[in-house]
Amino acid sequence: MSTLTRAPVLKPFTLALIQLGNIGANKAANLKHAREMIQKAVTNHGSNKKPDLVVLPECFNSPYGVTHFPEYAERIGYTPGKPFSPDSSESESVKMLSAAAKENQTWLIGGSIPEKDPQDDKLYNTCTVYNPQGDLVVMHRKVHLFDIDIPGKITFKESETLTGGTTLNSFDTEFARIGLGICYDIRFPELAMIAARRGCQVLVYPGAFNLTTGPLHWELLQRGRGKVLAEASEKEEIVYADIDPKTLEETRRGIPVTTQRRFDVYGDVSKM
């Protein structure tokens, strides 16, 4: 995460969350469908105001599984702080996402895709973000890898093929500072605590939870950070939420933990 400036003033904005279905083995078809759904999210909102931010789910361009990650991984080539043109990237997913953000003139969080580092060929689960001009503004590699072994139920180890990211990331829009995580990252409160201490007013965690560990914990973990405003069914769907800054302001005034923390007793995790 780069050196922080003053966070933008939180303003009202509309969020569109895309829950994708029909993700199959054909990457080109997956990308085409995702682009169509981005367009649908922008044009079918049902009001004169289009969404300010559109979000895709985790691993939207391929089937989700450790055997699939190496096959579908793409080299992005983005380095923070250095000039980067999405059109020159090797990644077909990046090119599509950049074009979709630009043609719809919206901020776009591109869920995540399997990424192959061009320097050492390590694989990551990576989220990319685009402004309304189609510029790639930040990239987040999933920090915590989902390795579980529940006897008789599920065994899944992302670390068999993926490497965990090593940076915490956020980006500024004209309406909010937004912190990023991916799926399993939500279970580790340190990321959210640090993001909040660094001025983030919104946290976005694209996810693809399984049906064994997901149903109980996914909603609970989100409710631990706020009221549920919109919720999709298990089918393909687009949900919208109007974000009102008054809710954040009133909550922080009513429960002033941001000013009552005792860093004389315990350390500030964002500075460790």
From TrEMBL:
PROSITE patterns assigned: CN_HYDROLASE, UPF0012
GO CC annotation terms, alphabetical: mitochondrion
Matching InterPro entries: C-N_Hydrolase, C-N_Hydrolase_sf, Nit1/2_C-N_Hydrolase, UPF0012_CS
Gene3D superfamilies the UniProt entry points to: Carbon-nitrogen hydrolase
Keyword Hydrolase appears in the UniProt entry: yes
Coiled-coil parts of chain: none
Keyword annotations: Hydrolase
Record keyword Oxidoreductase present: no
A biological process from GO: oxaloacetate metabolic process
GO molecular function: omega-amidase activity
Domain CN hydrolase: start-end pairs: 13-272
PANTHER family linked to this entry: NITRILASE-RELATED, OMEGA-AMIDASE NIT2
Record protein name field: CN hydrolase domain-containing protein
Species per Swiss-Prot/TrEMBL record: Candolleomyces eurysporus
